[in-house]
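A reminder from the course coordinator: this example appears on the midterm review sheet, so study it carefully.

Given structure:
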């Protein structure tokens, strides 16, 4: 397989537009409700498959109906899910997302089986044989804070595998813990809040530069409607966001990662890959859910 996505797998239930939670037993009628495969590994995997990239996903879900759904929908989109383990007695991670009219997304979340993912659950040979390994949500997969896993990443990189990493939460303690991965990856893709929390810096350029000094080849910070900032040894570059009507921001970070990774697979340099990530994220922002707007998305790899 070209790409391995490894980490957090979540079922999202999304509803829009939600202006308030009804009182008592009241009902509000909505325009749309969807259920999708999401999370920093699963969402990115689906988007990569929609972009025409061969992708193998690794993670943990419960032995429950939500897990059945997650594996089914990922497989339907073309993701190889044979690397996802089922955990007896645990719930599959899930979120309920009431999407505001402006695209904002408060959430209710159960972390579920993601918390128990460990190096023993992983297919070592798939990691070593991948062109790209994408670590999705390492801040909450505490079982992978393991010297054996770091050694596996180092071995894969020595063999030519590129390692990218995205984060899931905005919790200060978890951001600091995730820094332990930085010497073992090539590209870090946090959002602005995560970069500031992880680095302790007061500004995004300072944050990206500080994180770059801890090991990655490049740090790409997503800035929402302001686009993204890319820090490399050559300096700072900014890529502007595309001007699109925003329906829902859920999964835009995962979409950016998927586009960036697809760009790397295609041989693009960092800024060119970031531009593809920007285009994919813009598609997703125009619909509901982490894979919205990606019909025919593989054509973006030729256009952008």
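Designed residues:
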């Amino acid at each position: 397989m070209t790409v391995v996505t490894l980490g957090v797998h979540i079922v999202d239930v999304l509803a829009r537009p939600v202006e308030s939670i009804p009182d008592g037993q009241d009902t509000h009628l909505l325009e749309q409700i969807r259920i999708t495969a999401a999370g920093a590994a699963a969402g990115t995997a689906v988007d990569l498959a929609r972009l025409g990239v061969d992708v193998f996903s690794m993670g943990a879900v419960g032995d429950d109906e939500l897990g059945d759904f997650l594996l089914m929908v990922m497989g339907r989109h073309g993701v190889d899910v044979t690397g996802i383990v089922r955990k007896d007695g645990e719930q599959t991670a899930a979120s309920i997302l009431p999407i505001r009219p402006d695209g904002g997304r408060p959430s209710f979340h159960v972390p579920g089986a993601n918390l128990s993912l460990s190096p023993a659950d992983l297919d070592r040979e798939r990691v070593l044989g991948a062109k790209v390994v994408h670590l999705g949500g390492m801040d909450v997969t505490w079982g992978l804070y393991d010297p054996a896993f770091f050694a596996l990443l180092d071995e894969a990189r020595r063999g030519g595998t590129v390692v990218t990493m995205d984060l899931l939460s905005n919790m200060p303690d978890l951001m600091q813990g995730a820094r332990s991965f930085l010497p073992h990856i090539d590209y870090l893709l946090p959002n602005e809040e995560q970069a500031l929390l992880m680095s302790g810096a007061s500004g995004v350029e300072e944050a990206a530069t500080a994180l770059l000094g801890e090991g990655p080849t490049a740090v790409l910070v997503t800035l929402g409607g302001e686009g993204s900032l890319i820090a490399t040894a050559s300096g700072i570059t900014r890529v502007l966001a595309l001007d699109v009507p925003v329906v829902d921001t859920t999964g835009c970070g995962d979409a950016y990662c998927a586009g960036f990774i697809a760009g790397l697979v295609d041989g693009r340099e960092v800024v060119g890959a970031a531009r593809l990530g920007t285009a994919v994220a813009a598609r997703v922002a125009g619909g509901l859910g982490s894979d919205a707007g990606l019909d025919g998305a593989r054509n973006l790899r030729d256009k952008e």
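The chain is about 30% helix and 25% strand. The first strand starts at residue 3 and ends at 7.
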